[in-house]
Amino acid sequence: MSRENEEFSEIFREINRKFRYFTANYTTAVKNGADIAKQKIMESVKNRDQPVDILLEKLFEAIKTGVQYAGERMIDCGVDMVEQMKKNKKK
Description:
The chain has 91 residues and is an all-alpha fold. The protein has 2 helices and no strands. It has one domain (3-90). Helix content is 89%, strand content 0%. The longest helix has 42 residues, at 3-44. The radius of gyration is 21 Å and the shape is rod-shaped.
């Protein structure tokens, strides 16, 4: 393999690694966020005698909490990726 092809292959391997890292973190963040939302939804529907508008507000808040959790984890992932890139540049 020529030097140029080796460099090109290394670039694709690095892109592939970063993509797998990102997708693994995304999958975990979304699953954990959904688990949090599920727990809050289950708590919300325990009292069946509450007015519908209060129930809907609790359901919306549960979903929002799950999405926020997932978003925060993805921001953390992005920060980690940037810090790793900075470390690699210094080498």
